[in-house]
Amino acid sequence: MANNLFLSAVVSGAIVMGYIVVGLFFLRFWKQSRDRLFAFFALAFFILGVQRLVLALTTQTNEGSLVLYVIRLLAFGLILAAIIDKNRGDKKSSS
After folding, report:
1. Residue stretches of the chain with pLDDT short of 70
2. Within its chain, how far is the Cα of 71 from the centroid?
3. What angle separates helix 36-57 from helix 66-88, to the nearest 10 degrees?
């Protein structure tokens, strides 16, 4: 049982680290280009990292709790908003 908890903590830590690294990656591209797509993606991955950290630090074993689900929904909503915002763009006619 103790090995299971240790392994779960290590995997959760690796996932949190991955989210933070990806968030920093997008943040770097946002600083270079000032494109909102990268800012939205960075924020979404930071939110996912915080959500996973909260899950790892609580004794709750159910990932399906409403609060954690809403946090994930917010992050994925940000990604969707970024994609829509990027594809919407300015449609100027060339005539």
Report:
1. 1, 59-64, 90-95
2. 9
3. 170
- What single string gives the DSSP state of each residue in 61-81? --TT-HHHHHHHHHHHHHHHH
| Domain count for the chain | 1
Q: Is residue 94 part of a domain?
A: no
Q: Give the C-alpha separation, 82 to 78, whole Å.
A: 6
> Can you say whether the dihedral through the CA atoms of 38, 40, 79, 86 is positive or negative?
negative
Structural domain containing residue 16: 2-88
Structure confidence by residue, pLDDT tens digits, 41-60: 999 999 999 999 988 888 66
Asked, for residue 93, whether it belongs to a domain, the answer is no
